[in-house]
Amino acid sequence: MSTRAAPRGARLTPLAREQRLWGWVFLSPWLVGFAAFTALPILASLVFSFTDFRLTDPEAVSFVGLDNFRRLTVDPLVRVSLGVTLRFALISLPIAVVLPVALAALLDSRWLVGKPLFRTLFYMPYVVPVVSAIYIWQGVLNTQSGWLNRLLRLVGLPGPNWLDDVRWIYPALVIIGLWGLGNAFLITLAGMQAVPTAYYEAARVDGAGPLARFRHVTLPLISPVILYNLVLSLIGLMRYFEVPFILSNGTGRPGSSTMFFNIHFYKTSFVFFDMGYGSALAWLMFAVTMVLTGLLFWSARHWVFYAGGERG
Amino acid sequence: MGRRLLAAALTALAGAALAQPVTITWFVGLGAGAQPEQKAAQDAIVERFNASRDDIRLEIVYVTNEVSVATLSTLIATGQAPDIVGPVGGAGSAAFAGNFLDLQPLIEEDGYDLSQFPEAAVENQRTDDGLIGIPFASFPAFLYYRPALFDEAGLEYPPTEVGAPYVLDGQEVPWDIDTLTEVAKRLTVDANGYDATEPEFDPARTVQWGFVNQWAGAGVARQNVTLFGPGTMVDEEGNARMPDNWREGWRWYYDAIWTHHFMPSADEDASDLLAAGNPFESGRVAMAQSHLWYTCCLTGTEWDIAALPSYQGTVTARLHADTFRILKQTRHPREAFEVLKYLTGEASLELLAVYGGMPTRPGDQDAFFAALDERFPQGVDWEVAKAHVAYADVPSHESVMPNHNKANDRLDQFKSLLDSQPGLDVDAEIDRLIADLQAIFDEVR
Hints:
Chain A is mainly α.
C-alpha cells in the first residue's frame, strides 16, 4: 500500500490525517530525545556563554555580555589548542581518507582470496571499545616494554619515544587512529562495489588500463563516499578527545603537543568549573567546524561526481 | 459530613507526609570507596543505618574516581548536590573549597565531644569556611622498602627510628637525602648487572630502580618535594612563589630521573617492567615513599617499612587526612550531621578497615593495626607509621591555592614535563611555572 503526498493546500482525507498523526507518534521518541538531550543543552550553552556561570557556585551567576568571547582572543591556550588540532588534522586527514580507499581497492580486487576474512579483520578493531584500545596502544607504544620498539630493536633500530617525544607523538596518534578506520573502509568498499561494471567494460574497450580505470571510473564514482568520509573525519578530529586525554592525563604532554581544543574545553568546563567561558569555547569550536565543513561542501562542487546530476 | 471526611483525609495525608523519613544522599568516589571490593561493606553499613532509624533514610551513590569531580560539580550546579561526600582527602576537598558546611554550630548544638581526637587533627579540619569535618582517617607517609633488594646489593636496611643514622660501608652516616640518593643509586641496576654508580651502567636498559614517589602524580604534584620540608606556593600577599627548599627538591627530583637514573621516567613508570604504573608492587623498585593507604594495593609480603630521610636535619612526612563532609547545599543539615556522626563513630572501624586508613582516635589504632598484621604477617613494625604523624607537613602540600583547580593543573603539567623530557633547565621551567601561576592567581583577584 502506498500513499501519495497531498498537494499543498489540499484538504487531507481522514486516512491521510490519521497516517500523519501516527507518523508524528512514531517520530516523537526521537523528537523528545533530541529536544531534551541535544537542542536544550545547545541552547543552554549559548545562554551560559554570556554569563560567568561556575558549576560549583550556581547561585552567583551573572550576565557578562560578550566578555567570554573577548577572552577567547586573549587566552593563549585557545591559540595553542586550535593550532594543535589543526596541525594534527593536516597530518591525519589525508591518511584517514586515502587509506580506506587504498584498502577498499585491494579488497575489491578479483585476485584477492579470502575477502570475507579480510573484511572482518579490518573492521574488527572498530568494535573494540575506544578506551580499551587506547590502553592497549599505550602498552604497545611504550619505549621500554612495547612490542613495536621490541620489534625495531630486533632489526637493530633504536625505537623512538612515541608518547613523550614531540617529534613522534603525532605519528603515534595517527597509528592509534588507524585502528578505527574499519568503518570508513567498509563504507568505501560498499561504494566501490556499487560502481556498475558496464563503466569498467566501456573503459576497457577504450583501452584504459587498471590505473586509468581506477582514476577515471572508480574515483569519480566513489567521490560522494570520499566526501562523506572526509566530512565525518573532519568532525571527528574537531571533537578529538579520548586518545590524547587518556595518554597524557589531560596535561598536553609532551610539551603542549596534545593540548587539543577539546581538552582545553573539557578542563575549563569540568575541571576548573568555568562553564560560562567553557560554553564560549564550545561555540568557537562549533563555528570553526561549520566553516571548515562549509568549505568542504563548497569544494565538493569541483571534485565530487553525482551520477544523478549536480546537487543543489 | 463530607467536609469532615475531607478534613480527616487531609490531616491523614499531612501526617503521612510528616512521617516520611528525610533522605540523605552519600556521594562516594572523590577519594576511596568506589572500588568494587569496598562497595559491599559500605552497602551493609547503609543497610544497618536505615534499619536503625525511622526518621532518616540513607542512600549511597558510587561514582568512579576519574569522573567524580565532573559529576559532583554538575550535581552542585543543577541543585542536586548530595548531602554528604566522602571519604575525601585534602586534594579532593581543595577542588571544592567553599562548598562545605561549617560543622561548628551543629557540633555545639549537638554537644558532640571533639576532645576524643588529638587537637592537631581537629585543627587540620579547620579552613576559612570553618570546621568542615570530623577527624576520621590519617594516612601518614613513610618509606616502604624491599629487604631482598638491599640484601642483594649488600646494603643495610634503612632505619626504622625517625632521625636515626644509617650504616653505609661500615660507617654511621645521617639518614638524609644525600644518603638516600647514594643508596638509591646502588640499588638501581641495568640488564647487565651494573648499578647506577658504575661507569658501565646503561640507563636505557634499567631493570631495577632505587626509589620512587609511589602514586604522587596527577593532582598531587606538590607531594614530590615534601622530603625537602613543608612549603606553600602562595606568599602572604597571595602571589605565586616557589620556596627555596622546594626549588632544590625539584632539581633533585629531576636529577634522580635523568642524571642518576634511580627514579623511573614517565615512560618507564608506565611500562610492563613496573607493573604499568604500580612500580613498588612490581618488585623492581627498592624504596618507595608513600602513605599508609598504599597497603590497599600491596599483594605480597616481601616488604617492610622504615623512616623517611631528613633534609637539613629535619624530617618531614606528608600526611593525608580523609573524612566525610556535608555540602552547604544540603536541605537537611541536622539529619546529615546524624549520618556523619554514624560514619565517623559507630561505623568508623569497619569503614577504616575498608579504606586502609589509620583511625584518628588513638584508642582505635591498635585494633586497626592488628587487622593489618593479619593481612601482612611478615611482622611490619607499625610504630614506624604512627611515629611519622608527628612529622606531618605544615602547611600541608594539599593546601588550597587561589584558583585552585587551574593552579593545580598547571603544577601537574610541570611535573609531567619533568617526568618525560630530558635535557631541561629546571630553574627556567620553575620560573615559567611561577609566572603562569601568578597569572592564574590573578584571574581570581
